[in-house]
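WARN retry 2 of 3 for item q-0093 after timeout on previous attempt; input resubmitted unchanged.
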Amino acid sequence: MMTIILKCPIAINKYKRFVKTFNEEVFCPCCGRKTRKHGKYKKTIHFKHQSFRIPIMRRRCPDCNKTFSLMPCFAIPWGRFAIHIYEFLGRWLISGIPISQLAELLTTSSVSVVSLKTLYRWKRRFQELWGNWWIDQRKKWIAEFDGEEGVLPLYREGISSSQEIQLLLSFFFNDGAIPCKGRLLSMINLRQPIFYR
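OK item q-0093 returned
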């Protein structure tokens, strides 16, 4: 089963109302044909202070005979936690907080302790995904601003990593407002042209 990222509200109650009224056409990412409704299933997703069972809509392509899940932008396929939890983990890792302290920061009365083994797995996955995104954005950025007034002078002057991240995010969001903490990865997730297999 493949996944299509669905643009939807991030608040759970608004998302549930959105699912009840969702009637948009969804096209197959493989062949482009209009898909048909194919039921729903429930997924448990953990937020910082509460866990929820949310409906995930499914679609089926009559030509390819492939089934797709319409995954909300705040969730990761096969992930138990909302995407903002992974974002905060990444922000803490980038800021230099030791991974041994992150289990305490992520644990609440409603979300059980995340094991160190899981945190190391998340760290490896975050570094891989973030690294790929960063390289991809650098390539697009350089291609866009090629020439004498390109980006090379910035690197010659000694741009810092945090300055580069801010510039890449501004470029990615077309000089629009960069989403606030907790919504950044959801918005990046939404704007990706790929679908998960």
